[in-house]
User: Fold this.
Amino acid sequence: MLKNWVKPQRPEKEELKSRLKAAQEKLAAQQMLLKDKKLPVLVLIEGWGAAGKGSAIGQIIRRIDPRFFKVFSMATPTEEERRKPFLARHFEKIPEAGKFTFLDSGWMDEITKERLNGVLDDQEYARRVDSVRRFERQLTDNGYLVLKFFFHISKKEQAARIGGLTEDKDTAWRVSRGDIWQNQHYDRCLEVFDKYLDDTNTPSAPWYIIDAKSKKFAELQAMEILCTGIDTALHNESLAVPLLQNAFPLIKMPKLSEVPLAGKTLTEEEYKEQLKKLQEKLGMLHNRLYRKRVPVVIVYEGWDAAGKGGNIKRLTGALDPRGFEVHPVASPEPHEKARHYLWRFWTRLPKDGHIAIFDRSWYGRVMVERLEGFCSENDWQRAYYEMNEFEQELHNWGAVVLKFWVQIDKDTQLERFTDRQNTPAKQWKLTDEDWRNREKWDVYEAAIDEMLQKTSTTYAPWHILESVDKKYARIKALKIVTEALEKALK
Amino acid sequence: MLKNWVKPQRPEKEELKSRLKAAQEKLAAQQMLLKDKKLPVLVLIEGWGAAGKGSAIGQIIRRIDPRFFKVFSMATPTEEERRKPFLARHFEKIPEAGKFTFLDSGWMDEITKERLNGVLDDQEYARRVDSVRRFERQLTDNGYLVLKFFFHISKKEQAARIGGLTEDKDTAWRVSRGDIWQNQHYDRCLEVFDKYLDDTNTPSAPWYIIDAKSKKFAELQAMEILCTGIDTALHNESLAVPLLQNAFPLIKMPKLSEVPLAGKTLTEEEYKEQLKKLQEKLGMLHNRLYRKRVPVVIVYEGWDAAGKGGNIKRLTGALDPRGFEVHPVASPEPHEKARHYLWRFWTRLPKDGHIAIFDRSWYGRVMVERLEGFCSENDWQRAYYEMNEFEQELHNWGAVVLKFWVQIDKDTQLERFTDRQNTPAKQWKLTDEDWRNREKWDVYEAAIDEMLQKTSTTYAPWHILESVDKKYARIKALKIVTEALEKALK
Assistant:
């Protein structure tokens, strides 16, 4: 893109001034529409060192109410951030519905730097590009406006700016060693930047190259593109996007109605013996995966009163509390609902060497959100693919991903509900909603069957835990987890 | 894509049958919705030789009313087709609004064949891929549903099918030499196919790989994806898409109000002398470009009564009638309006060595269609980019592209209108619409200024012909054309 790019004509001073004013007024008006229509806008500003990215952001936000935007300057990842998947810290920054996020450099800067440093070989670079394309597509598919700017200056101009900044004591700190290195290796950088821009230039999140030689003109270009982008996005009330082929390595799952529950029991004795043995083993494995820095993500889904909580306890009972976290997942908080539905999970991922257990999960998208109409059909249809992608990111990062469906039959549920109702100490566990959900058992079962068929992959398989006898289900879970960890640690 | 592709699970016979029936019924119902919503659907079926592409199309169309679809089997381009830009014969086949086009192989087949034959080197291949991506994006941006299937079979399966077909005299004709060659070079073909699929897999026109081992199952996969795709597309009433950066090599143009008209005159004598000289020269150049097979595209736009017709006559007067065509462009016919607005121009391109003169053109999109509300704002805003792309395709093909704006002032127009009104032989030239358009002079002038700024490129520049004195404008046009041809023929 940079190589074929053509410098735009800079307007005369008067025209520039009046167009800039018009754009500023427009943006001021748009922020209200944006809020009404709940449009989230992510503005990524990448470019050469000393190209004026920061000051352009500074100019743009002057026209926006401070409640409606956040600015992040993405530095080199910290040690802590390095222990999460590459995208996690970027995903974290996405704006809420109706608001802006401005990023002063982002994932492009990170990837191209590592490319130039030789940290990323061809294959890893290709994987990163793939992740970025998926990430950006997931945002735009879910109604985000993603605007990507590259602030471009020539080698000569960059050298002059670095010189200018360095001369003055008050501004010298703004010149990084990276900027100087860039200028010395300008052509090589141009090569790498240009390839990245080409690799990630998609119709729904295209790149806009900004001629950054003049600050005012750069601001005008960015402002005008921003206004046009917002106009376009505001026009699309609720957008349906093509469903992609769910071509992940799927494992055939039985229908829930075909899962035999009878006879899946253990005696108290068998249970105690196996529990002890498996928990000891798990404790040992936990230490090893901590040392080897293997991250683990375990998902629990299941019918109300199926015994998820007790099952999770038997797992965590064996674990060092410093090395795991359980995330109970209820309906999203307002600030969570205002973002991409995967956001609250991206921000809860374990560090490597840690275990995260999700008591309910992102699969709510294709169960409760689907059936209660909290998202559109296109949204939940698309979600199978998106969740397979999400787990593939985790797998590529090195995580062990396991998913449990805790299964009981309708009669067992009724028994447990009744028991809860009649036992004062357990009454808090039973809500009216549980009864309402029970009435929809059949539609839920069909949705769950579809979910199991479409999201059980070799790298993140579903396991059904037959839990009419809770002891049986607990031992089965422990066995599956220990086996998976043993395999991963080999 | 093919390398990472995972074979889908084939459902049991009973399930397959019932899902196929459901999909067929759905498609039968969708065709009516499609017609109502004027959705055009382009289905491209590519894949291995003998993979059953044709018979799948045969099955799918059985459920569609014959008035609503066309099937094309794209063979190797003919000698005639080779003399047009690569995309022309494909663009020609796009469906009308509310209808289907099925292509039994298309541009993928053409490109990968030429890649395997060694006709396309890396650079030319990259250019083709670029053209395809632009083409498909232009279709989806303009509301087309584009579904791309790749019918995939293994080397063994292909060999078995070729064997089976060859044995039977009645089917042996269906095996081409290309199929046999493909099977012998399966791995090399796989490499080239896979790269092409990766290179052209975009979010708005993604690839779907079909497991074509079983015919019934292949049909089911294609039908289900087709139905889902139509559902998604029907959901989007009127879609606004991101405006891409107009980064073409633009030439700065003056505003019309700044173009001096006074003094741009010729005496009758000067005119006659120069006309004769230039027409002779043009005639000679026409012969040379015919021999050298250079295509020429000339666009005339201008105010009503500015003298376009007479200007064009002075050009064509010098040309061999076998080597040029004039295309008067009025408002589109129903079958033209039902397609992408560039369709009627893609199908009117000259063969190489020929000259096509357009009396009005695709620029109607950003003048009359814009100002009369015949398209949405997003449509005409996007059109500057699309037309620059279109002309770049022509330029890359080797064409000389010239665009004339025939300029007069408002008073001159009034004089000529009055003259037409008062001269019985000229009355047919003046319509009520001309008067109505005259009332909108100022908004037209602003739109024309914007058009000239945004679409005058180094490879397809606008030239303003000052035509208060028509003689002056004619000589200027002849000079520009002869100079451009001389340059191209050097």
Chain A has a mean pLDDT of 94.
